[in-house]
Records
---
Amino acid sequence: MYYRGYILIRLKAIGTEWKVVNKLTGLKSNISEEKWEVTYVTPVYGGWDIVVECSFNKLLELDKIVSYIRIDEELSSWIEETTTLVSTKADYPEF
């Protein structure tokens, strides 16, 4: 079983949406003991510019995803703010 999380991203400037989407699409752990991945990324309309869906088994794995988004040099130059939402229970089928 695994959890699902959603990371909402607000950009610093219009026009960088697809750069962020391309950078995050397919992102996953390369460590055999971890099982996390970004499952979907899309630009959206409204108060946020991009929604990132991810799956993970432990909160520490979610922390790695969020930290990467906030610390990566390119991403941090495009992203102004993030908010993270976490599913309340692990009831999604294995991926």
Note: The domain at 3-86 is CATH 3.30.70.920 (Alpha-Beta Plaits).
---
Amino acid sequence: MEIDKIIHEPARLRIMMILAGLEQADFSFLVTTLGLTRGNLNRHMEKLESAGYLKVKRSFRGKVRNTSYQLTQKGFKALAQYWENLDTVRQSGQP
């Protein structure tokens, strides 16, 4: 049993938790909600996307580019496994 280091990073865990509760979220919403810089959020999203945890949807609203994200099935499963593994680690430290 190993803790997923991609999810375990605090900002990425917060991203995963937000997306787990929403159908999808756009980049601007995540920047505002998380209080991260655009560049920092972009790097975290790239890591999560490369792991297969996020689906990225790029579109236009009028002439403005919009990028939104949603968790993939793999992302939901990885997050559930992350919490199970964390509980196991937490419980193993108790008498």
Note: The radius of gyration is 15 Å.
---
Amino acid sequence: MPLPQGPVEDYRPAAGVVLFNKKGKVWLGKRAGKQTDHIWQFPQGGLDKGESTEFGALRELREETGISIETLRPLARIETQLFYDFPPEYTGRGRMKKWRGQRQYWFAYRFIGQKSDIDLKFHKPAEFTDWRWGDLLEAPELVVPFKRKVYERVVAEFESFAQPLR
């Protein structure tokens, strides 16, 4: 896993969630906005000042998917921060605030709800235009390349949950 290329404070604190269904598939969202070949990702986003990492991860999950905590069961977390740098050509919101990249905390949850519990329009503006259940192992190839190493580590850490419940 790459180490930060500068002071930790230059990286935006963030959190992400890998959401597994009962069949061991993961929730993947199709990013709104600029269309590229790498538009699918897990729910993730920046932490608000003073917010705990898990609360921030669950808030981001709720805002981006409409999924409430009543439909979740905690599985695991990665104890260390995972870093990525924005590429020089990146012009997203993080770059606009002069962040070098992100330092992320990751959590795994089991979704025990129904399809009707998912609402991409729960919070405006919508982060995703579509979603699907997919294989955990495909996620690193679907995300933008500068996040790929983080996703590879997330896959390695949470791979044991990609099994159907018995």
Note: Residues 53-65 form the longest helix (13 residues).
